[in-house]
Amino acid sequence: MSTYSQIYIQVVMAVKGRPSLISQKWEEELYKYITGIITNKGQKLIVINGMPDHIHILIGMKPSCCLSDLVREVKKSSNTFIKEKKFTKFKFEWQEGYGAFSYSHSDLNRVIKYIQDQKKHHTKKSFKEEYIKFLKKFEVEYDETYLFNWIDDDEIKESRS
Questions:
Q1: Per mean pLDDT, which range of 34-38, 81-85, 153-157 is the poorest?
Q2: What tens digit of pLDDT does each residue of 112-152 get?
Q3: Distance of CA 101 to the CA centre of its chain
Q4: 100: left (phi over 0), alpha (psi -120 to 50) or beta
Q5: Exposed/middle/buried for 122, CB within 10 Å: 0-12, 13-18, 19+?
Q6: pTM for this structure?
Q7: CB-CB neighbours of 11 under 10 Å
Q8: Which residues have a Cβ under 8 Å from the Cβ of 58 and sit 6 or more positions away?
């Protein structure tokens, strides 16, 4: 008997410490590189987009794929890619951990649009608000101590002064 499946996972990854290091100048090249990693691992990247401090990736996955291994490879390889390309003079690293949320086929158009509209969406809502909303919507128990290291807007303003 053959295996048939439809597994759709949205992965959310943040820059370590959440500084805004992903520049619009090179984000498209980064997204293409990450697409290549996922494709080379035999999975289907449906959409990728984000902000300077985090990205969203919607993946059509085969049941034989281990999500944690895939995300580990995406983080490791894209870190190396960013460093080798010297995209930023600052130390770039992905935060430890990630969010992973599953969807049905009937949700795909809505999720794709949501990911494509990240820049518009974040004019009204912070990444922290967005992420906690995901956790609550998907009824994921969490301890705020172990969530991403958040940088408050005041800290960002101070560091730019």
A1: 153-157
A2: 999 999 999 888 888 888 988 999 999 998 887 777 666 55
A3: 11
A4: beta
A5: middle
A6: 0.86
A7: 19
A8: 8, 9, 10, 11, 45, 46, 47, 48, 103, 108, 111, 112, 115
